[in-house]
Amino acid sequence: MSAAAKLLRGNKINRSRAGDLLLFLFLAALGYFMALPLVFVISNAFKPINEILQFPPKFLVRNPSLNNFTDLYNLMSGTWVPFTRYMFNTFFIAFIGTAGHVIIASLAAYPLAKRKFPGVSVLFTVVVLSLMFSGTVTQVTNYMTMSWFGMIDTYWAVIIPAIGSSLGLYLMKQFMEQIPDALLEAAQIDGCSEYRIFWRIVMPVVKPAWLTLIIFSFQGLWGAGGAAGSMYIYSEQLKTIDYALGQILAGGIIRTGPSMAATLLMISVPIIIFVITQSNVLQTMSTSGMKD
Amino acid sequence: MIPLSRKPGERVLKQPRASVWAKKMSEVKRHKHMYVMIAPYFTIFLIFTVLPVFLSLTVSFTNFNMLEFPDWVGWQNYARLFIRDDIFLLAVKNTIYFAAITGPISYVVCFVLAWVINELSPKVRAVATLVFYAPVLSGNAFIVWTLLFSGDSYGYINAFLLKFRLIAEPILWLKDPQYIMTIIIIVQLWLSLGTSFLAFIAGLQSMDKTLFEAGAIDGIRNRWQELWFITLPSMRPQLMFGAVIQITSSFAVAEVATTLAGFPSVQYAGHTIVTHLMDYGNIRFEMGYASSIATVLFGIMLGSNLLVQKLLKKVGD
What we know:
Chain A: It is found in: Cell membrane. Chain A: InterPro entries: MetI-like, MetI-like_sf. Chain A is an all-alpha fold. Chain A is built from 15 helices and no strands. Chain A has two domains: 51 residues, no CATH class; 206 residues, MetI-like (MetI-like fold). Helices cover 71% and strands 0% of the residues of chain A. In chain A, helix 4 packs across helix 15, helix 5 packs parallel to helix 8 and helix 6 crosses helix 9. The radius of gyration of chain A is 24 Å and the shape is globular. The longest helix of chain B has 32 residues. Chain B is flat. The chains are: A mainly alpha, B mainly alpha.
């Protein structure tokens, strides 16, 4: 048995060896392409300065060192706004936005999934339609609304729209539909209020779904300093690590090391969260389909 | 006591001759807790997603600079867009070209990859999922591509080509209009294995295994037939969801373009509808004109999504 065939053991019926090999090669080639830039980040984060300036450049690190991380630390302690402030901003936006989204979207998903009342189908149709256009379409008028509310140049300009994102509500609703009605009815007969049913029965059952929402929301907000942040937030002391990172990177080749160290630190947080919750995420996504 | 929700076909005590409206109102009253629960989400959703769409439609018929009161100009913005604004037409061309390539490719790759990964043993599958999903997880780590495609001989692509004597001198990848679009497409494809990829993997994993056994008995001979006759038809809901996500994101490309090629890019080679929108909305503050750009983009996104949904409904029919 070839190595590829060994790796590709699935349900054994209807599988040819040639097909196994073909698919394995496809997977390997694509995997290489996908992993290349990430390997580059990791490798460069540990490269000492002479290897970064080496010509021709070597892709992989020869003598790994932690210098870039200490350089990054020194570079950051010299900035006008302390680095801890950027970190606080990033964490604040990511945590408040994610928590708000998970709670409020779940709260709204339960009635949409499990109760029939006037307006429910119209509301859900609007949510599905909103999946069909990107937030960029509304960014100009959103800017106007936010300036009326006085939200420009505050954290809330990034946080509040993320709380109302439609993908999270959609996934949560699809997942909650799988909860057996009998469970809810039993609780009702026992005299539970709707809020209590939601909090004590529905929420624990849909734990995989809210872990998924946490991944999506956190991942979006964690890097939000770049796109949404620069649009709505002007004050230096309210900007995120993402923005600070861009500033270091703008320093050119000599800053490659520290900026790769910073990038590595930035991307490791969402990746760690994903690794921890992966199985739960896939469980939720299995219910994501759109029925006609 | 809390009223039980009504089953279809179940009869409810009703007053004779109660008007439709009164019935609706009592229904609403009966479900007041439901409205309380959905209120926070839908307040935000309506203000920051639905309202802006309508506002954008309205503002697109005005001349508005955020300072003075807007004045109504009718179709003038649209006329200017399509007749006088050559750069917009270039942006539309770029966007459609871009979406026509990345949309279908990323959609098919998402599915094929998910399908191949699903054949792996669970441990390998988890690792492979992480490898392919990592670019999306890593946020804007795509800036590393600017280093790979850097225009001097320190750029890795240049160094590689120079080493093998394929080129005589470094190529200014991100400054040469000839290459900009291709590079943006490559990077966007790298980033495109996102939500729909996860949806496909999960959909495949939750498929009914007995279907395959039954298929084998019924004479399905290889994996390709299995894919066509069993897997694809039962994946229809996920396929529809994936299509929506993929189409929407391929029309919205901007961040990758501006990060890699700069803003504005050389000879507008990486200019898309969204970057044009950012130009007028966030820099020049011509809100009326920017809104008409947004409205056109909205129409394109919604239209192509509805069209593809209609086509996908035919899969397996």
